[in-house]
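ugh ok fine here u go
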Amino acid sequence: MHYGIIAAGEGSRLVQEGVALPKPLVNIQGKPMIKRLIDIFLQGEAESISIIVNEQMTQVREYLEALAPTLPVPLRLVVKSTPSSMHSFWELSSLMKQTGGKFILTTVDTIFRPDEFLSYVKAFASAPAEVQGMMPMTPFIDDEKPLYIDVDAENRITAFLDAPGPDTRFVSGGIYGLTTPAFDVLEQCINSGVSRMRNFQRALVDAGLLLKGYEIKKIVDVDHAGDIATAEAFLSE
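structure:
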């Protein structure tokens, strides 16, 4: 499996709340968030890891450049400031296209239990070829502006919504398991001026890609200083 990490945000809310470290280097249970993800990906049989950081995060870039030679798989780094996570994905896509097949992309501040994530990786890796994407979804709402997901009886994703419908049970987990057809949809979004990952996800559905949902019980985002303690408590449960 090939993996990508979007770590190009400014983390401005953490800075305003007194957290001195750049978000990717904030410790969760004694380990930088970005290293925690890398370690989990290696457990998930990573073949490569592609990461984007912004131009201002010199500390993060230096950390990753020092880490890369110690890893058993290639770590490809893009250093560029972007206006949205979708544009960060676009910058990574030139690297990730080269790998072919299935890949999993996540934002750096997405916290999940390793065992649940690795079960998801196995499910996506073994999914039949007609499944063009598998998106983790959770009934636990932690995000300030959650993206709701509607699925049918076979867990096929039918819609991404800003507000829940009458039968909506899940929200997006900020993890994206996709295959190569997604790159064409991403390019169309960029060329038509679309922004934000949620609109890209809607475009995937509109394009007719077969996306399956995969339930993960709980996923926590680290956006505020208080979320650090929340994440650590969650992982210690």
